[in-house]
Design goal:
Elements (H helix, E strand, L loop, with lengths): L9 H10 L3 H9 L14 H8 L2 E2 L8 E4 L6 E3 L1 E4 L5 E2 L2 E2 L1 H13 L4 E3 L7 H9 L8 E6 L7 H14 L5 E9 L3 H10 L3 H11 L2 E8 L3 H9 L1 H4 L3 E5 L4 H8 L9 H11 L2 E5 L12 H10 L5 H10 L4 E6 L4 H10 L8 H15 L21 H13 L11 H17 L25 H9 L8
Parallel strand pairs: 4-7, 4-13, 7-8, 8-9, 9-10, 10-11, 11-12, 12-13
Antiparallel strand pairs: 1-2, 2-3, 5-6
Helix pairs in contact: 4-5, 17-18, 17-19
């Protein structure tokens, strides 16, 4: 799989013809001509940059997955990556058998990038079991140096060793400093700089224990800027950012609790300028972009009748040439099949489709939703509140125009209030309701989106029957 021939197949020629129809993609490719050299001592070549940014469709008769070439290591990586955070459950525990089946399906259909982390519960262990049943050179593993609240060098070293053991491997293909930006520069220094951990991770890359080193970014953009400003020292191979057609230009308005944040457009452009690959998380904004308002969905169907809103969102991300991988948490086989089909091969968004999504993003950004991505970092709640479940029900009601409630006493107010209550009670158990929140604030430091969770739960609580308290 590594260093594979990327010669142009008939399928690839057809795909590149489709790529040429997307004005925004062509413009982005052209912008690469100004990129500097991207790795140690290598000379810049526009042709090489363009080749690594273009899409390659597998030459196999039964696999049409779209791939992109890692310009640092020449890895041929599936544009669709498997996010292993939200795994299928059975009786409250991870269903290993179902994970095995989904991993088998993904590999059989060309998906070869699997992303996990120590902080994702048993994900590393479960992922290791599922993937170790296959040849190691048929997939790429990504995991992270998560925040374990212990910041000695030995603690960070042990985390990597534990990940290797749980993933049943001797090397990690893509290793990330996890969730940098949370806590600002002080936290970055504490976790990675002052203790020498980042320098040690660079040494592990030189030894081949880590093949590609990068970071995932949340929060304070000054941390993002600092790391890229020192890229001549660290030589990051990739950066993982939250990117979707709303966060492209509206991340700041969606996350107004941040004092120093940035839209995805800025993050992506800065990585592209430096020749650093972008890995995308939350392409569906925690599922929000898979269930859009009916009027928006109808506008999409008028152009592409067979595409769901989720496919629109994924195609938009994949249309950006500096994106190496688009991560999706595919918990069910149905979602896995749909996403594989979307990228087999990817049909990039045209200029008209990109313009439509830009207009829809402008309209959606004004909607008072909670910017929860259902990452579940805040869980478990000490008092049993299903925090992401509460926000999911609330956001769904906003997108369906049940909320916000009209500021009148008309019948429409009561009808919409009762409709919200019925949906809420149908989807959540009483023990999971917002009424159980005791404002302990244990969730606050865990949230990558910096959501004031108790405040948001209080808004939901106000709409519930008093007897539920």
């Amino acid at each position: 799989m590594k260093n594979s021939d990327s010669s142009e197949t008939p399928g690839r020629r057809h795909f590149l013809k489709q790529l040429g129809r997307g004005v925004s993609s062509v413009a982005a490719l052209s912008a690469l001509s100004s990129l500097p050299a991207w790795s140690r001592g290598s000379s810049f070549s526009y042709d090489r940059a363009r080749q690594s940014a273009e899409d390659i469709v597998s030459g196999s008769d039964d696999i049409a997955m779209t791939y992109r070439t890692n310009r640092h290591m020449q890895d041929r990586v599936s544009l669709l990556g498997y996010g292993m955070m939200r795994l299928p459950q059975r009786d409250g525990t991870v269903d290993q058998e179902m994970v095995n089946q989904e991993v088998d399906y993904a590999l059989a259909h060309g998906v070869n990038y699997f992303d996990t982390a120590p902080s994702y519960g048993k994900s590393e262990e479960v992922t290791g079991i599922a993937l170790s049943r296959h040849r190691r050179d048929t997939y790429y593993l990504a995991t992270k140096a998560s925040d374990i609240r212990r910041y000695g060098l030995a603690d960070g070293q042990q985390m990597l060793h534990n990940s290797l053991d749980r993933l049943r491997t001797t090397y990690i293909d893509y290793y990330l400093l996890h969730a940098v930006g949370l806590g600002g520069m002080d936290k970055l220094r504490l976790r990675f700089l002052d203790n020498g951990l980042l320098d040690w991770l660079c040494e592990q890359r030189d030894k081949g224990v880590i093949r590609n080193l990068g970071f995932s970014y949340h929060g304070d953009v000054r941390v993002f800027d600092y790391l890229l400003a020192h890229n001549d020292k660290y030589h990051f191979n990739f950066v993982q950012i939250e990117m979707n057609y709303i966060d492209w230009r509206h991340a700041s308005t969606q996350r107004n609790s941040w004092k120093h944040d940035a839209d995805a457009e800025y993050l992506y452009a800065k990585c592209a300028k430096l020749g650093i690959h972008t890995v995308v998380m939350e392409p569906l904004l925690g599922g929000r972009l898979a269930k859009v308002d009916s009027q928006y969905a109808q506008m999409m169907k008028q152009i592409r009748p067979g595409d769901t809103p989720a496919r629109w969102a994924l195609r938009w991300v994949g249309s950006h040439p500096n994106v190496l991988v688009t991560l999706s948490g595919m918990t069910t086989m149905d979602v896995l099949r749909e996403n594989v089909a979307t990228f087999s091969p990817l049909v990039p968004c045209t200029a008209a489709e990109t313009a439509l999504l830009s207009r829809l993003a402008d309209a959606m950004a004004g909607t008072p939703v909670v910017p929860c991505t259902a990452c579940r970092y805040c869980m478990p709640c000490p008092f049993g509140v299903n925090i992401p479940g509460n926000f999911s029900v609330y956001n769904e009601a906003v997108n369906l125009h049940q909320l916000p409630l009209p500021e009148t006493t008309a019948s429409d107010y009561q009808e919409r209030l009762q409709s919200f209550r019925r949906n809420y009670q149908a989807q959540l158990k009483p023990a999971e309701w917002a009424t159980q929140c005791r404002d302990c604030e244990a969730c606050l430091p865990k949230c990558p989106q910096q959501i004031r969770i108790p405040n948001q739960l209080a808004r939901i609580r106000e709409m519930l029957p008093e007897t539920s308290a």
